Amino acid sequence: xxxxxxxxxxxxxxxxxxxxxxWKLKKEYKPDLVIVNGENSAIGNGILPQSAQxxxxxxxxxxxxxxxxxxxSEIYPxxxxxxxxxxxxxxxxxxxxxxxxxxxxxxxQAAVINLQGTVYLDNLESPFDAADREIEFARxxxxxxxxxxxxxxxxxxxxxxxxxxxxxxSAVFGTHTHVQTNDAQILPCQTAYIxxxxxxxxxxxxxxxxxxxxxxxxxxxxxVRFKNPDGPCxxxxxxxxxxxxxxxxxxxxxxxx
Length: 257
Description:
Blueprint: E1 2-6, E2 8-9, H1 11-29, E3 33-37, H2 49-58, E4 62-64, H3 76-81, E5 85-86, E6 100-104, E7 109-116, H4 127-140, E8 145-151, H5 155-165, E9 171-175, E10 185-186, E11 192-194, E12 199-202, H6 211-220, E13 233-242, E14 249-256
Parallel strand pairs: 1-3, 2-12, 3-4, 4-5, 7-8, 8-9, 9-11
Antiparallel strand pairs: 1-13, 6-7, 10-11, 12-13, 13-14
Helix pairs in contact: 1-2
């Protein structure tokens, strides 16, 4: 089974580029499941029903989110009414939506779990404890293949969770930093892993933001209204092959278009 994961889609530029490029990737790799992180897909951050729908229309099967998941209240009814868009499972229980998506692939069942890190981010429930709970739910629901999008800042936290889940899930891929890492690997107990799959959005940018504005913010620490530059874009992610019988990984490779 082939699974395609696409990194954080940034603003309208990222949404439009995803719409242009994703069908080509689907034609090339013929994935059984496409996962797209869309937590920055709305103009000005967060996600809106319009940007979510554009991602689905582009060919995503499941949308995962992150620390900006609930920034725009317009998305709340969308999260409550659909099972194919999920926010981190370790958000407070009062948060709208769910942290795990069950996907019927016909010949097998899959689950996509979304988690958020706590190092340098919000003070949430431990992602380790939340992972245990969501994996148990996925297994009881019949999922053989389990994919985890870990939206986290610290590489150490990402790698620690991956080793904790090694052999328990099919894959753990990181999102949030918008910078694709060069450490795609199969862990000792056959879980696929990469620290961050990157982003989809403006190529000449600082994590999707106009460089001059990012520099001003970092240099002065004064309020700056960010803008996403036009121009060339990049699409980053990874392709994973999972054995259907064991639910364990066969291969993983990073992609960039």
